[in-house]
Amino acid sequence: MWFDKQDERALFIDKRRETHIDIYSCGKKTNIIDPDIIGDFTNIEQPDNTFWHIVFDPPHIESNSVSQITKKYGSLQGEWREMLRQGFKECFRVLKPNGTLIFKWSEVQFPVKEILKLTDQKPLYGHKSGKKMNTHWICFIKDE
Questions:
Q1: HSE-up (13 A, CA, CB side) for residue 119
Q2: Cα 65 from Cα 91, distance rounded (Å)
Q3: Which superfamily does 40-141 belong to?
Q4: Over the stretch 77-113, which tens digit does the pLDDT of each residue have?
Q5: Which residue ranges make up each domain of the chain?
Q6: What single-letter DSSP state applies at residue 107?
Q7: Engineering a disulfide at 134: which of 9, 107, 112, 129 sits with its beta carbon 3.0 to 4.6 angstroms away?
Q8: Residue 35 contacts residue 18 (beta carbons within 8 Å)
Q9: Cross-strand pairs, 31
């Protein structure tokens, strides 16, 4: 989603550092997951009120199998609703007052209205995108 993953203004956190090949009908593509910090969005190792802007793009598919899509984006497993609840809480903890959180969710398996119940924060606005309009981009602003 980022135009420049090397942009010094961005800090990428992911629990994985790996490379794999995605195979498409038109050929192959190398997918490199190389975050700045190996970490877990349920326990972000940054001080409170650190960031003005956060993009929270968690996995959105529940699956125990390994597929091209789960290799690329990860998958929801176990008590994933509690995991997302804690992820929202952590994102708002490290967000500065008046900072923005953009939450990305694809409704492939679970409606966004159910996922938004996992946070007590009120979204400001959102936008649907994608071929089937399943992907939601939702903006929150942290209260002072």
A1: 22
A2: 28
A3: Vaccinia Virus protein VP39 (3.40.50.150)
A4: 899 999 999 999 999 999 999 999 999 999 989 999 9
A5: 40-141
A6: T
A7: 107
A8: no
A9: 20
